[in-house]
Amino acid sequence: MDNLSYLNGANAEYIESLYQSYKEDRNSVEFGWQKFFEGFDFGRGSDATHVSTEAPEHFLKEINVLNLINGYRQRGHLFTKTNPVRERRKHLPTLAIENFGLAQADLDTVFNSAIETGIGAPAKLSDIVAFLEQTYCRSIGAEYLYVRTPEILKWIETKMESERNTPKFSIEEKKRILTKLNEAVSFENFLGTKFLGQKRFSLEGAEALIPALDSVIEKGAELGIEEFVIGMAHRGRLNVLANIMQKTYKDIFAEFEGKGYSAESPFGGDVKYHLGYSTDVTTIDGKNVHLSLCPNPSHLETVNGVVEGMSRSKIDFKYAGDNSRLAPILIHGDASVAGQGIVYEVIQMAGLEGYKTGGTIHLVINNQIGFTTNYKDARSSTYCTDIAKVTLSPVFHVNGDDVEALVYAINLAMEYRQKYKNDVFIDILCYRRFGHNEADEPKFTQPLLYKAIEQHANPRDIYIDKLTKTGELEAGLAKEMEKQFKGILQERLNEAKEITSTYHDVKFGGAWADMRIATAKDFDVSPDTSVKKTTLLEVAKRISTLPKDKKFFKKIEKLFDERNKMATTTHVFDWAMGEQLAYGTLLAEGKRVRLSGQDVKRGTFSHRHAVLTLEDSEEEYTPLANISEQQAQFDIYNSHLSEYGVLGFEYGYAMANPNALTIWEAQFGDFFNGAQIVVDQYVASAETKWQRENGLVMLLPHGYEGQGPEHSSARIERFMELCADYNMQVTNCTTPANFFHALRRQFKRDFRKPLVVFTPKSLLRHPLCVSPLADFTEGKFKEVIDDANVKPANVKRVVFCSGKIYYDLLETQKANEKGDVALVRVEQLYPTPVDQMEAVYKRYKNAKDAVWVQEEPENMGAWPYLLRRLRKTSFGQMDVISRKESSSTATGFAKQHANQQAYIVATAFDVPVTEKVKEIVGKATKKLVNID
């Protein structure tokens, strides 16, 4: 620090100590000193002869000015003019110059520190303050300094400060903004007048969203975007459908008139503000952009994971992994983005290899209110967007009344996303002109706010006033624009009134063009899903052979030696091999396979080992990715610890493309209930509501082995109560081969249905749970498997069962010399194969009764559904043998579990609960690998 010789000794010593601290840790000194030590010349030796001659004092003030600049960058967003209807909360300390060691007397002093800003040259303090106020404290507030990459920080600052966060649009651009703003405002006014009292979840108060979306499509196309996938809740959805997605006004009005219903339609439909839509638009520059608006339920933010999954699927399949050609847009509400945990689950995917989409643009319609809840009661954080800091995503807070500022901000966000492939948030501070819906009275809970809103002009009128005052718009032109547009709306309404029905037969397009809606007949018999012997054995050999030049753990080598023997010698395959043969044969046929979930690479129960880590490094080897050079891609990802977000993502992935086997596996089956909303609102009902098929596979480990209430049941009853209209397939397979065929069946039909598989735990290593080669190379999925171990004439009781309980029953059957109980496995619980069950039962002409046996309590499992489903069949008098009804799925006591299991098995055979029976059922518990 020799160059500080001009300072007096005390100052030099102080600065030298700061310098030493800076050298150790730059963040240990204030921002101003950081910039100084980077090499600032504080006026000494420069041409700035007007700089104060008292160098030490002025030098310290230069540091203070730098701290002032940093103060605006860091905290300017707290002092913006971004709230259109409320006074902003007060924050201390303010950005007054006195709080930075400066005084009013310094305002005319020139400081070289201005070079650090977008001013780019020495400037008076008054000019520096004016610059900072304009950039950071007007209609746009920026939060970004938590970003940890210097390049990104510099890029954001340069972008904002070079234009002072003040848009400079051409007259033509301003006309475009006004046109879209007029469409948004007039459309809402028209609906409110013509359909008085009908729910529409108006956008009024946030109409600037429409020109913003219009602009981001234009800007995105300019930067290489070919497709946007959009997710949003119901508020403003009709406006987006009409004025962005280009759904015709006539069709929307017809829905208001009730013309969307048809008695001939097999679908239940949904309210108009939940519907999805897709379209192609042409930008001003002639570029084509595809837009997809994902259908959504009323469960706010649920759609987020679905949108991200759809986006990733399209990036993978349509754009060959290039995420610069597609961007997701998520439109949130302020209460939901702050309050719903799904937002956090999905945001945490942003940088994960298996789930990232190249950055999402998040728009928050910040009404400053929930249903009736004030924003102060809706969150602890300062902003509803504070979750953005999790992924170091910049946030722009924008006044919703300043449409040009919003368009400017969203264009900046689009540039940022394309350049840095990271999420970005825009917090649109606005208001909700009416209550939660148009029939709601908001003055019950926010009387003062709504008194202010009543007197507040809409964003269009505010913008017209601004353009008129600057002479950029003639006063009469705006009124004529509104009159013409409303005339068009009236014409479309008249046309809509003449329509009998807007219902059309479902026709899929795009990636789904070859698909159709399934019929009941499609489920009578499963298609052939067998594989040629030579092909199957070749795949088996490939996926069980480890490369010689890589070193694996001894246990892995032993495991794969055993698998290789299955492929080359025994030709009898266990569950893990049956599963991986399904994937391997599909991959060999050119079908892409994607599997994700917690710990799926190894498998919760250490059975899959689809990805192997070498012993002496972090290198991974994936046998299923090394079948042949011609095979399709195999993707497998351990997810973060999320069910709700990841299941939504995988559902979206399968929703976008039917040509990949998309699988989500729960760590334990009962953990799926963390994603119950996705199951209820998408998996079970999307086809009925929105006519959208989906081939997602859910693997849910299930089975009673004494592991307690949380590790026994995958809640079969929850799925069964959702089954209707052939909406999904629910299976509980007992053999590796049948599981193999169930997975392959997903691709062997020209329609798609979700497949829920209750997968085993103890059966993974059960010596009887194996399948011979012929079961893979011949035939198809078996909905029902009859008993081959008994003579029909000797049978007095027919036991119908499903899943793991079969093996407990089987061992007892072998010990029962009478041979008078037949064990019939129902492998597919839904669509329930009643005809096949009845056909099997008829074989046992001497049977006196048929019973359903299950491990689950009587009020759970498949029985409650079957009791209703079978009551009008020949099984109308069928009874059940199970655990007693219970509020909990299973006991936590191993002894009680064993007693209950022994009771079920003994009762099924009408024998006493002997020690032999207890010994038989006890084996299952011992076989389970204890992993929690």
Quickly list its features.
932 residues, eight-stranded mixed beta sheet, seven-stranded mixed beta sheet, disordered N terminus
Strand portion, in percent? 5-15%
The number of helical segments is 31
Biggest beta-sheet profile:
8 strands, mixed
| Main sheet strand line-up | 3-9-10-8-7-4-6-5
Total DSSP E strands: 26
The dominant shape is globular
Fraction of residues in helix: 25-40%
> Rg to the nearest angstrom?
33 Å
- What would you call the structural class? alpha/beta
Pick out the low-confidence regions.
1-10, 40-55, 928-932
* First-to-last CA distance: 60 Å
Provide the residue-averaged pLDDT: 91
Description:
It is a single chain. By secondary structure, this protein is an alpha/beta fold. Residues 1-10, 40-55 and 928-932 have low confidence and may be disordered.
In brief:
This protein is an alpha/beta fold and 932 residues long.
How is this fold's topology laid out?
Blueprint: H1 9-24, H2 31-37, H3 55-75, E1 110-111, E2 123-124, H4 125-136, E3 140-143, H5 150-162, H6 171-194, H7 209-222, E4 227-232, H8 237-243, H9 249-256, E5 277-282, E6 288-293, H10 303-317, E7 326-333, H11 334-339, H12 341-347, E8 361-366, H13 375-378, E9 395-399, H14 403-420, E10 424-429, H15 447-454, H16 459-469, H17 475-498, H18 533-543, H19 554-570, E11 572-573, H20 575-588, E12 592-597, E13 612-613, E14 620-621, E15 634-638, H21 644-656, E16 660-665, H22 676-683, H23 686-690, E17 697-701, H24 716-720, E18 729-731, H25 736-745, E19 755-759, E20 771-772, H26 774-777, E21 784-785, E22 797-801, H27 805-815, E23 821-826, E24 828-830, H28 834-843, E25 849-857, H29 863-869, E26 879-883, H30 894-909, H31 915-927
Parallel strand pairs: 4-6, 4-7, 7-8, 8-10, 9-10, 12-15, 12-16, 16-17, 17-19, 18-19, 22-23, 22-25, 25-26
Antiparallel strand pairs: 1-2, 3-9, 5-6, 11-20, 13-14, 18-24, 21-23
